[in-house]
Amino acid sequence: MLPQKDLVSLRGLSKDEILFILDTASEMKRKIDNPSERDNSLQSVSVATLFYENSTRTKMSFLMAGSYLGATIHDLGVSTSSAQKGERLVETGENLDQMGIGIMIIRHQQTGAPHLLAKRVKASVINAGDGTNEHPTQALLDLMTIRERYDDFKGLKVVILGDISHSRVARSNAFGLTTLGASVTLAGPATLVSANMQALGVSVTNNISRAVAGADVVMGLRIQFERDKAAAFPTLREYSDLFGITEEVLEAAKPRALVMHPGPINRGVELSVDVIDGKRSVIYQQVKNGVAVRMALLKILSDKRLL
Question: Residue 239: helix, strand or coil by DSSP?
């Protein structure tokens, strides 16, 4: 059981709490492949998605997760909502509270928006990504995917490579992986990764060969052009040549090393095409596990609300 009504961050969650979510997600995963095991256990729960930023995988997986458990899902079309008339986020949340929404899932461009909303509403709030801060459900599905290969996180070397500066995925993974005992290295060009990130309990380097050497997991991150229009490197070709994950780069990793990416991928930039479609890649497994993790969170938070 989680100690709070919300899931807005992985920071502060204990090892046991994270593993409880992952264990529940493993149970839920069977329902994805076997429709006969799906149920209506959440038929009395109303869920609203508030996506102030575009999304495919995260939003759809939450919608499918609720559907597989029988919840009533409402998608607030932000572009056609009163947000376009100047209604503040908190006001939107308070109105949804009065309508009986039990769980609000929010993605917002402003860092801290889910935390603010959680303090002002009775509903449980799930952070689906806030600014460049955190993306806890993405990290949880990444942890689940790693756990399906490796039973124990202790001693694992996980390398997260790419646009670290703008990555909420990197931050949430750093919190989750270090809590579970893994060693984390953040790597990328100096313009996209800061030594200040060491404060998260991770290593930081601009040397990709050194970072990948002996890695159990290599995770690429998308170059987020929409967050910074200034050029952090001269050309995409140069970035790919110096920091792209290729089969040649992966030769330094362990033979069974996993290759991951949260998506969407700039194919041929962060990862070469043969790596994306190669035997090490578990990128599509991550997508399926995303539904399972989000099913687990809806179930856990709903059960907590019913106590």
Answer: helix
> What distance in Å separates the CA atoms of residue 282 and residue 292, rounded to the nearest whole number?
15
Q: How many CB atoms lie within 10 A of CB 119?
A: 12
DSSP character at residue 213: T
- What's this model's pTM, rounded to 2 decimal places? 0.95
DSSP-assigned letter for residue 78: G
Query: Is 44:100 a contact under the CB 8 Å cutoff?
Result: no
Tokens read off for 217: 């997991």
Give Cβ neighbours of residue 164 (< 8 Å, ≥ 6 apart).
Answer: 170, 186, 187, 188, 192, 193, 194, 197, 221
Summarised one tens digit per residue, pLDDT across range 66-102 is: 999 999 999 997 776 767 766 899 999 999 999 999 9
Lookup: tokens for 259: 């290759």
How far, in whole angstroms, is CA 121 from its chain's centroid? 23
User: What are 110-155's pLDDT values in tens digits?
Assistant: 999 999 999 999 999 999 999 999 999 999 999 999 999 998 999 9
Could you give the strand order of the β-sheet that contains 46-51, starting from the edge strand earlier in sequence? Answer: 72-76, 46-51, 103-108, 124-130
Q: Which residues contact 228 (CB under 8 A, 6 or more apart)?
A: 165, 166
H/E element, 75: strand 72-76
Are 141 and 173 in contact, with CB atoms under 8 Å apart?
no
Residue type, position 172, single letter: S
Domains of the chain from N-terminus onward:
15-135+287-306 (3.40.50.1370), 138-286 (3.40.50.1370)
Does a cis peptide bond (omega within 30 degrees of 0) precede residue 264? yes
Q: Which residues contact 60 (CB under 8 A, 6 or more apart)?
A: none
Helix axes 283-306, 15-33, angle to 10 degrees: 110
